[in-house]
Design goal:
Blueprint lengths: L13 H8 L17 H9 L10 H20 L18 E2 L5 E2 L6 H19 L5 E3 L8 E3 L12 H24 L2
Antiparallel strand pairs: 1-2, 3-4
């Protein structure tokens, strides 16, 4: 899925979060279908990640994706905090301690519940390790592709500085030039 928009894949469980975010095509790439638009597409997407589909609720999957995207945008750009939407981002997750000391989830859930459990666990683990700060969405409102920030200082804001970054910088330059011209008019 990281290949879909030519971005580096997030490590571990965060890759599922990134792939969920990137099921939606950026506005600028209307030729890339929304992978959660129909139950058949959503089922194929979940199957490709080893998640039993069960009954596919595409609206709930899209709501989860949109809530995650809104949270990342809020974290990076500020503005009003997104609402969680009637407990959508809550999941009772059971853990089991194996005799060897490893902790597992029973894994009996399917569909949206399985995606939600895996996503929330991945985000929680990433927050504990600090990796959560490296999963971002492109600052371009026309894009919003989720990407893994590989920069040294975790300060990347565009998934591709040559496309989205160049466009943003060009717009800013034109706005400054236009403001300068207006200041010089008698």
């Amino acid at each position: 899925m990281a290949d879909r928009f030519r971005v580096a894949a997030a490590p571990g469980g965060l890759r599922l979060v990134q792939e969920l975010l990137n099921t939606a095509a950026p506005k600028a790439r209307s030729n890339s279908p929304d992978l959660l638009a129909t139950p058949e597409r959503a089922d194929a997407w979940m199957h490709g990640r080893g998640i039993p589909a069960g009954t596919v609720d595409t609206a709930a999957l899209r709501s989860l994706r949109d809530a995650l995207r809104a949270a990342l945008v809020h974290r990076e750009e500020g503005g009003p905090a997104p609402s969680a939407g009637d407990g959508l981002l809550e999941a009772p997750i059971a853990f089991r301690l194996s005799p060897d000391g490893s902790v597992h989830t029973p894994g009996a859930s399917s569909g949206v519940t399985a995606v939600l459990e895996r996503v929330l666990l991945a985000v929680h683990d990433a927050q504990l390790t600090g990796a959560w700060a490296r999963l971002k969405v492109c600052r371009s409102p026309e894009c919003r592709v989720a990407f893994w920030d590989q920069s040294r200082n975790t300060n990347a804001v565009w998934h591709d500085s040559q496309t989205c970054g160049n466009i943003a910088n060009l717009r800013a330059s034109r706005a400054r030039r236009k403001a300068g011209e207006q200041d010089n008019t008698p």
